[in-house]
Amino acid sequence: MERIGNVHDERELLRRISESDETAFSVLFHSYYPLLSTQVYRITRSLPETEEIVQDVFFKIWMSRETLQFVQDFKPYLWVMAKNQSLNVLKKMARERTNQETYLRTGQHEAADLPDPSLVFHSLIDEAIAKLPPQQQKVFLLSRRERLKQAEIAGQMGITVSTVKKYIQLATEFISQYIKERYQLVIPPLVLAALFF
Length: 197
Description:
By secondary structure, this protein is mainly alpha-helical. The protein folds into two domains: 7-106, RNA polymerase sigma factor, region 2, helix turn helix motif (Rna Polymerase Sigma Factor, Chain: A, Orthogonal Bundle); 117-196, Arc Repressor Mutant, subunit A (Orthogonal Bundle), CATH 1.10.10. Helices cover 75% and strands 0% of the residues. The chain is built from nine helices and no strands. The radius of gyration is 18 Å and the shape is globular. It starts with 6 loop residues before the first helix and ends with a helix. The relative contact order is 0.11.
């Protein structure tokens, strides 16, 4: 497995990822996954939560990959993302514990067959894309589904490259938040990574 050797190598790797190079993303993922997992675990003290947080961070990095070419120092950037995500998850866990205690006290138990997590995940992505404003949706689909470069999208739609970048950023943030709010199942180990390799 290829590894990151120095700052120059890392910047080149980020440039490749910003151009949707999945091999470069795999190198980044495997290079930083162990260290990031250790740091996140120090906050959560939970292996399942740690794994989910780290997967979510890398998912967000991939979804907003066009912006990576502007990141000067990747390690602090990665750590801030992971720290913020960890704190959000801890708050969510505290709320869920409170809700669970209330649920158990009221005795409202329901049994249900759980759907396939990956199907739910993909379905939520499609739902989120469908809810985007028309221009954002078109830009996002041209970028992700048609694999067009930002300049090509700008030319095709008659807008500036900076507008394309902004639409992609807004769409990515909306989709990520939409999934986070609705995805109640625990994502199995490495399922997010598997979606992109």
